[in-house]
Amino acid sequence: MTVPATTASANLTPLVDTTAFPEAVDGEVRAAHRLYEHLIGIWAPGVIEAAQDLGAFAALTVGPATAAQLAEVLDTDLRATRVLLDGLYAYDVVERSRGEDGQAVYTLPAELHGVFAPDGLFSLAGKIGHDRNVAWNAWRRLAENVRSGARTAEGAQQLNQISEEDYTSLVRGINFWAPPITRSLAGALRELGWTTGRSRTLLDVGCGTGIYSHLLLREFPELTARGLDAERIIPIAARQAGQLGVAERFQGEVVDFWSEDWGSGTDLALFVNIFHLQTPESARELLLKAVKGLTEDGVIAIADHIVDEDGGEGSVQNKFFRLFAASMLATGGGDAFTVHDYDQWLADAGLRRIGLLDTPMHRVLLARRS
Ligand SMILES: C[S@@+](CC[C@H](N)C(=O)[O-])C[C@H]1O[C@@H](n2cnc3c(N)ncnc32)[C@H](O)[C@@H]1O
C-alpha cells in the first residue's frame, strides 16, 4: 500500500470517480460533483480528529487491532468504531487487511506513530487540538470577517489574534514545516559564503519552539542562536534545544519584539511564520527593526506564505498561500503577502532581495543591505 506520509501530497484521495460519468451528463451536474468534493473536505479533519480525540491513534501505535479490539480498549460502540476506522482507511491514514477469522485488521503505519503522538518532534497533535479549539468555529466567521474586513473597533486592519494560550497548544504542531526550510536555507547560506571557520550569530524573531534555530545550529557548528518569544513559549524552546543537543548554543529570551530592543551583531535575522500575522504597516516596522541590529554583510531570511505572482500564478504554493490567507482572515487578521509587497518593505528599510527559495509549503526570501 502507498502510505500518504511518503507521497508528495496527502490529498490523493479522490472521492468522485469522474470516469464513471455517463456521456449524457451535462456540465452543471459534473460541476456540482466537483464542488461537492470540496464541500466534503470537512470530512477529513472530522474523521482524523475524532480518532485522535478518542485515543484511537495511541491505541493503534501499540499494535494493529480489529474494530472489536479497539472498541473494547477505547470503550466505544463496536459498529461506530468500525465506521470510523473505515473512514480512516478511506483517507489512507490506516491500512486494512483481513485477519485469519476474516475480520478487518487496522494498522497505523510506523511513520504516522509520531505524527499523532502529543510529544513527537513533528507531531500534528497541536495542530489537531488547535483546529478543534479554534479553527472549526473561526471558519464559521469568515463571511462576517469578509464583510467587516476583520478590523479593530477603530477601523484599522488587525494583527492575527491567536491567543498565547492557543498558540502554546499549537506550537509543536507546525514543527514539521522546518526541515525542508532549514535544509534549503542552509544550502543558500553556504552559497553566500557561510562555510566553516567563522562564528556567526542567528536571531530567531518569534522563535516558537525554536525548531528553525535548532536545526540550523546542527547545520552550522560555529553558529550561536538567540530566540525571542513570549514567557510561555521560551521554556518550550529551551527544552527542545536540549532534546536536539544544541542547548549550549541556543539562548531563549523572553522579549516582546515590538517594545524591546533586539540587540546587535546579527549575522542572520530569521522570521518564520511571522510576517503572515502582520499588517503591511507592522511588516515594514519589523524590517526596520531587523536592519538596525544586522552586521554589514548580515542576511535577513523570511520563511512564510509568500505569493510569487511572477513565478507561476497557479503554482501549488500560491494556491496554498491564498487559502492560508483565507484561514488567517477566518481567525482574525494577517495575510499571505506577495513578493512585490516584501520588495517594497525591504526597499523602505534599505534592504534588497537577494534570493527566493521554494519549499513545499513556504517560500524563503533572503535579503541584504542595498
Ligand atoms: C506563528 S508563530 C511562529 C513560531 C516559529 N517561528 C515557527 O514558525 O515555528 C509566531 C510566534 O511569534 C511569537 N510572538 C508573537 N508576538 C510576539 C511579540 N510581540 N514578541 C515576541 N514573540 C511574539 C508567538 O508567541 C509565536 O511563538
TrEMBL record:
Which Gene3D superfamilies has this protein been placed in?
A: Vaccinia Virus protein VP39, Winged helix-like DNA-binding domain superfamily/Winged helix DNA-binding domain
The superkingdom listed in its UniProt entry is Bacteria
Q: What's the protein here called? A: O-methyltransferase family protein
Record-linked SUPFAM superfamilies:
S-adenosyl-L-methionine-dependent methyltransferases, Winged helix' DNA-binding domain
**Care to name a GO molecular-function term for this sequence?**
protein dimerization activity
Recorded hits in InterPro entries, A to Z, give: COMT-like (IPR016461), COMT_C (IPR001077), COMT_dimerisation (IPR012967), SAM-dependent_MTases_sf (IPR029063), WH-like_DNA-bd_sf (IPR036388), WH_DNA-bd_sf (IPR036390)
Keyword field contains S-adenosyl-L-methionine: yes
Q: Where is the O-methyltransferase dimerisation domain?
A: 37-108
O-methyltransferase C-terminal domain sequence ranges: 200-351
Q: Which GO terms describe its biological process?
A: methylation
Cite a single Pfam family from the UniProt record: Methyltransf_2
**Source organism:** Streptomyces bingchenggensis (strain BCW-1)
Query: Which UniProt keywords are present, listed alphabetically?
Result: Methyltransferase, S-adenosyl-L-methionine, Transferase
